[in-house]
Amino acid sequence: MGCASMTASAQYTKVNEVKNGSNYDLTYINVEPIEDLRKHKSGTKAIAIMGLLPIDLPKILDADDSTDNDLDNRLPEYIFPNYRFYRSEKDVTTIGIVYAQTSSNYQGDVVADTTTGAPESYAFKSKKRKIALRIANDKHFNTIRFRRFDLDPYWGVSGSLGLAPQVIENNATYVGGDYVNSKLTKRYVTLGLDAYFGCNVMFERFSIGLEMIAFGGDFQKGAGVNKVQESQSFGGTVVDREYYTSDDWYPGTQFSDLKMSDNQVSMYRGIRGIFCFYLD
User: Fold this and answer.
1) Rounded to the nearest 5°, which phi and psi values hold at 25?
2) Rounded-to-integer distance, Cα 35 and Cα 257, Å
3) Which pLDDT score is estimated for 140?
4) Is the distance from CB of 238 to CB of 231 less than 8 angstroms?
5) Does position 61 have pLDDT exceeding 80, yes or no?
6) Residue 24, SS3?
7) CA distance 196 to 55
8) Which of 119, 144, 166, 200 is the most exposed place for a label (fewest CB within 10 A)?
C-alpha cells in the first residue's frame, strides 16, 4: 500500500512539473481587427510614378490642315511624380506634373573643297518639350481578392494644361569662315484630355498597374507662328536679323510682326504604366 502511494505521488509530481510554466507561455487572442493594408479608405495618400506611351489613331476628325494625327504634337510622357488622394474607398484624385521631351541632332562635314564659299559643315538640332499640370479622377470597382495580392480594376478621366515650346537650330559653315546660323522658336499652349480603363496589382504597401487609354486628345493653341533669329557672315560682314514666318500662310515670307490663331489636334490611344507607394 505504501509503495503504491509513493508511486502515485511521484506521478502526480511529474504531472505538476510538466504543467508548471512561466506567465509568458499563455496563449494570447487579439480581439482587435487586423488592419488590411491592401484595402484603402478615405484619406489614404500615395505617391505615384507614371509613364505614357501614345499610339497613333487614324484620322477621325475633319478639320482640314488643323488636324494633326501623326503624333508630332503628342510626345511620349516620361516618368513624372503624382500625388494621389483617396476621397473615399472607390474615388481617387491624382494631381501631378507631366513632362515630355523629344529631340533630334544631326551634324556632318562636307567632302573637302578648298574653294572659298563652298559648304564645309552642317548641323541641325531640334528639341520639343511639354510641361503641364495634370489632374485625374478614378472610379474603382470591387476588388478581386487573392491570397498574396489583389486586383483593383477602375476607370477614369484626366486633363492637363501647360506649355509645349519647340526650338529648331540650323547652322552652316563655309570655307573661308563664313556662316549662316538660324534659331526657330515655336510656342504652344496645350490642353490634353483622355479617358481610360486600368487595373492595379495591389500589395501591402505598393501597387503596379497599367492603364489602357480608350480615347485621348491633345489640343494646341498658338501653332503656326515661328520666331526666327538669324545670324550670318559673308566676306567679313555680319548681319543679325529677327523676323516671323508661318508654315501655312504665305510660307517663306518674312514678317516683322505676325499674329495668328491656329489650333492643332492630335488624337491618340496609349498605354500608361504606374507604380504607386502608399503612405498610410
Assistant:
1) -90, 5
2) 65
3) 94
4) yes
5) no
6) helix
7) 14
8) 144
Residue type, 216: G
Q: Residues 151-162: pLDDT tens digits? A: 999 999 999 999
Provide the b/e sequence for 32-44 (b: ≥16 CB within 10 Å): eeeeeebebeeeb
- How big is the CA angle at 167 (ends 161 and 172), to the nearest 5 degrees? 175
Q: Which helix (H) or strand (E) holds 17?
A: helix 2-19
Render pLDDT for 99-139 as a digit per residue (tens, 0 to 9).
Answer: 888 888 998 888 876 666 678 889 999 988 888 999 999 99
Q: Write down the pLDDT at residue 270.
A: 85
Residues in the chain: 280
Nearest Cα residue to 263 out of 188, 158, 193, 153: 188
CA distance 51 to 196: 14
12 phi/psi in degrees, rounded to 5: -65, -45
* Per-residue model confidence (pLDDT) at position 58: 46
Grid cell listed for 259: 499674329
**3 state SS of 88:** coil
Given the C-alpha cell 555680319, which residue does it identify? 238
The pLDDT, as a whole number, for residue 68 is: 41
Burial of 139 (0-12, 13-18, 19+ CB in 10 A): exposed
3-state secondary structure of 166: strand
Residue 40 has pLDDT above 60, yes or no: yes
Q: Largest alpha-carbon pair distance within the chain?
A: 135
In sequence order, what are the residues at sequence separation of 6 or more whose Cβ sits closer than 8 angstroms to the Cβ of residue 214? 195, 196, 197, 269
Instruction: Please give the model's pTM, rounded to 2 decimal places.
Output: 0.69
